[in-house]
Amino acid sequence: MKRTTVVVALLVAVGVGLGASGLLAGAGDEAPPPTVEEPSPSPVEEASLVEVAGDYRLWPYTSRGTSVEGRTLAINVLFYADAEATRRAIERREGADWEATEEAEAAATADAEQVAALVARDWADAHSSDRYSYVEGPDGGVWLEETFELHDGAYLGVRDHLRAYESPDGAYTAVQAHEEYYDWFRLRHTVPGIDDPAVRLEDEFIHGAVDAEVSREYRGIRGGWSDGWVSVIELASVALLSGALLRRRTRAAAVELARRGRREAGRHADAALLGAALAAVIVGVRVAGVALETAYPGIGPKVIAAPLYLVISVGIPALVVARAPDSEPSAALLGVVVGVGAGFVIDFAALGVAVPPALLVHRVALLAALGVVATGRAAGDRPVLAAGLAAWVVGLALPLADVI
User: Fold this and answer.
1) Looking at residue 142, what is its pLDDT?
2) Contact 179, 161 (CB under 8 A)
3) What pLDDT is recorded for position 2?
4) How far apart are CA 347 and CA 118, in angstroms?
5) What is the CA radius of gyration of the chain?
6) Could you give the 3-state DSSP secondary structure of residue 134?
7) What angle do CA 244, 247, 250 make, to 5 degrees?
8) How far apart, in whole angstroms, are the C-alpha atoms of residue 382 and residue 389?
9) How far is the C-alpha of 277 from the C-alpha of 87, rounded, in Å?
10) How far is C-alpha 239 from the geometric centre of its chain's CA atoms?
11) pLDDT (mean) for 100-121
């Protein structure tokens, strides 16, 4: 196939990919909240309210503002307890009453204690965009701000994020649990789903030494990524809470990708080196972000993300421009496609999240843009190189402009 044909095909892929990703975007990310609207006297339909406990019926969604038009994700966990007891139960911060252990008991409990230490999840305060929910009681309706937010995981990696809303009479606490990962090419969080984090939260109470009843109820909730079912947790006592399930994330995709990369490396050493460097940059930015966030908790995550984003936006095309002349055009193209593709796959595999379709198409478009850059640079074709760099800039600009 002629080089011109390949370049044209790549540019078409960029255009189609960016266009398609813009059309598909919106379902899986939490965009910045718009201006908050004043609540109307009857903001929700009567049929959309659900009975939970006490005197207040719940509108089972969150909203960007005090308006149903800002609806985002569905409430998927209900605790029959007030917010204080619910938070204590999730965080397992109840004071422990330690007693001396007999010598005979020590050997029998050592293994269990080690397992408990390994599987405990580390819930901590979370801060994010404001979201509201709505309840309606004897004296009318009221929009609720988050009573508390918790997260397990890293802001710049992947985490489970909980937003909790306590009913005004304290009869229940409604929780919106979702999984989110930081997308370096969009500079914000993306939500791949809400079902798995609700199940993981369930498991903490099902498999731990917890005096609680866990069940699921079908409430017919539509929209907000809900399948209609809600996890219901009734706390009888939060003093016995201990342990949780260890969240296991598969690395099989990354391992297989590494094996294939080694087999191809011998054929085109320069192109393979370029591909490996590109993959290292993409994965290294994620690792560096999480490591810096963990080491310096007092620094805002976005302050850490800003310089690392420059590594992605400027460093990746600069690396292609610098190293592509050492390879044949076809080999340079292959190295970029394999390397950047591997970086994307390893990143998502390490996070353990499903890729929303819109973002998958967007990544393919960015990959095609870098392929044009590599082909143009290796062939010494400046117009092709310029076209590839322009496509890369457009591909990064559209998410920042909230088009994708």
Assistant:
1) 93
2) yes
3) 60
4) 24
5) 25
6) strand
7) 160
8) 10
9) 44
10) 31
11) 42
Residues 6+ apart with CB under 8 A from 210: 89, 204, 240, 241, 242
For residues 31, 32, 35, 37, the Cα torsion angle rounded to the nearest 10 degrees is 50
Residue 51 neighbours by CB under 8 Å, 6+ apart: 57
Q: What angle do CA 289, 290, 295 make, to 5 degrees?
A: 100
Asked whether 343 and 335 are in contact (CB, 8 A), the reply is no
Query: Please, which pLDDT band fits residue 38 given cuts at 50, 70 and 90?
Result: very low
User: Percent of the chain having pLDDT more than 70?
Assistant: 74
Does residue 15 come out as left (phi exceeding 0), alpha (psi in the -120 to 50 range) or beta?
Answer: alpha
Structural tokens at position 297: 């908790």
Please measure the distance between the N-terminal and C-terminal CA atoms of the chain and give it in whole angstroms.
33
Q: Which helix (H) or strand (E) holds 59?
A: strand 56-63
Tokens representing 6 are: 């390949």
Q: What is the pTM of this model?
A: 0.69
Pairing state between β 77-79 and 229-237: parallel
**Are 122 and 160 in contact, with CB atoms under 8 Å apart?**
no
| Residues 321-365: tens digit of each pLDDT | 888 876 778 888 888 888 888 888 888 888 888 778 888 888 888
- pLDDT over threshold 90, residue 5: no
| Better-predicted residue by pLDDT, 272 or 143 | 143
DSSP 266: T
The string of DSSP codes covering 82-117 is -HHHHHHHHHT-PPP---PPPHHHHHHHHHHHHHHH
Q: Is 351 in a helix, a strand, or coil?
A: helix
What's the CA angle centered on 10, arms 6 and 11, to 5 degrees? 120
> Is residue 100 scored above 60 in pLDDT?
no
Q: Is the predicted pLDDT of residue 135 greater than 70, yes or no?
A: yes
At residue 18, what is the residue type?
L
**Given phi > 0 = left and psi -120 to 50 = alpha, else beta, which region is 223?**
left
Residue 109 pLDDT more than 60? no
Residue in this structure with the two tokens 């302050």, named with its chain if needed: 303
Q: Across residues 123-146, what is the average pLDDT?
A: 88
